[in-house]
């Protein structure tokens, strides 16, 4: 008997979640800023510094955390992992809801 393709796809999704264990919450944002030093390249108001941050709610309150330059790529990827985790959870819930509705119909 061939396997149920939905169950196979659910299984694949569940197994893929382990690779997302380093995920970070929030959104990854880039802020432009001037540093205030009069001789800096940012003093013209155009060539501003980039400050990367993650922005999220902590106990219902909006918070931002600066991301050190050397961690920017890593943190960007970890925030992206959370998006993939949420997408996988939504797909799994969709499969389970369809199965629930079908099962209910067959009672
Ligand atoms: Zn500057």
β-sheet strand percentage: 15-25%
Q: What structural class should be given to the helix and strand makeup?
A: alpha+beta
Number of helices: 2
- Poorly predicted sequence stretches spanning 5 or more consecutive residues: none
Bound molecules: zinc ion
Helical fraction equals 40-55%
Residue-averaged pLDDT: 94
Please summarize what this structure is.
The protein has 2 helices and 3 strands. It has helices spanning 5-16, 72-105, and strands spanning 27-33, 49-58, 61-67.
Q: Please, could you describe this protein's structure?
A:
The structure is a single chain. This protein is elongated. It has 107 residues and is of the alpha+beta class. The mean pLDDT is 94. It has a three-stranded antiparallel beta sheet with strand order 1-2-3, with helices on one face. The longest helix has 34 residues, at 72-105. It has two helices and three strands, in the order αβββα. β2 and β3 (61-67) form a beta hairpin. α1 (5-16) packs antiparallel against α2. Bound molecules: zinc ion.
Jot down its keywords.
single chain; alpha+beta; 3-stranded antiparallel beta sheet; 43% helix; binds zinc ion
List the helices and strands and how they pair.
Layout: H1 5-16, E1 27-33, E2 49-58, E3 61-67, H2 72-105
């Amino acid at each position: 008997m061939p396997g149920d393709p939905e169950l196979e796809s659910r299984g694949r999704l569940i197994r893929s979640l382990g690779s997302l264990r380093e995920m970070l919450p929030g959104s990854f944002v880039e802020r432009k800023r001037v540093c205030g030093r009069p001789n800096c390249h940012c003093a013209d108001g155009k060539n501003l510094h980039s400050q990367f941050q993650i922005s999220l709610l902590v106990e219902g309150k909006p918070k931002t955390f600066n991301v050190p330059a050397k961690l920017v790529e890593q943190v960007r990827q970890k925030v992206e992992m959370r998006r993939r985790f949420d997408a996988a959870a939504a797909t799994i819930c969709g499969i389970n809801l369809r199965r629930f509705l079908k099962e209910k119909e067959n009672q």
